[in-house]
Amino acid sequence: MSIRRTTKTRRAMTAVAITTGLVLTVAGCGGGGGDDDKPDKNSKSSASANGDGGGDEKESQAPAADQTLAESKGDGVTLVISSAKRDAGGFLTVSGKVTNTSDGLWTGGQWRGDEQELRKNGASIAGASLVDQEGKKRYLVLRDTTGRCLCTKFDGGIDSGNTVDWFAQFPAPPEGTDQVTFQVGGMPPAAIELSEGE
Asked: Positions of the region Disordered (predicted)?
């Protein structure tokens, strides 16, 4: 009898210990509430890194690690390009941030491009292109087999004052081409330096 009771007691204690550990883990990962909301700088950096924080938090954030290759203003937004890296397989990924500087919701509709195939991409950066002035060649955003762009789609638009991350993938220009011009919608063209990926 005592062996049976000891076994049951051990199982019960093990179950309690596991349950307590899980509850503490979930509580620790839950975030929010209390003093966690007070340090604005930390929450802003965290929100921008995850790309899902509130708009006002994202607008004023500027991680020290980010560099600015180019900046373009127009269409009611400010577009910042922070990276243009060649990837394995002959791709070039351009990325950065876009901030809505208008007074209303910005949907990105004017950036989707004029091609028939791009109409499926709605509010996205699908109409972007890279121009190699020296090689006299224009590169369009890559698409999958269903015509969807390999780029950011601005689902629901961007509220006034908010900033979101964006990216677009292109065919990589030939080796030796280290500067191209990025163009999208009615934004002024932006010259950017290309770098090698890791």
From this structure: 32-73
Among the listed residues 196, 134, 119, 129, the one whose alpha carbon sits nearest the alpha carbon of residue 169: 129
Distance of CA 164 to the CA centre of its chain: 7
φ, ψ of residue 55 in degrees (nearest 5): -65, -50
Q: Which residues contact 39 (CB under 8 A, 6 or more apart)?
A: none
CB 73 within 8 A of CB 81: no
Q: For 64-91, how does the pLDDT look when each residue is reduced to its tens digit (9 = 90+)?
A: 456 899 999 987 899 999 999 998 888 9
Task: Using the predicted structure, report yes or no on whether residue 53 has a pLDDT greater than 50.
Answer: no
Q: Are 48 and 61 in contact (CB under 8 A)?
A: yes
Identify the pLDDT of residue 9.
Answer: 54
Residue 32 DSSP class? -
CA distance readout (Å), 195 to 17, 87, 92 = 51, 10, 9
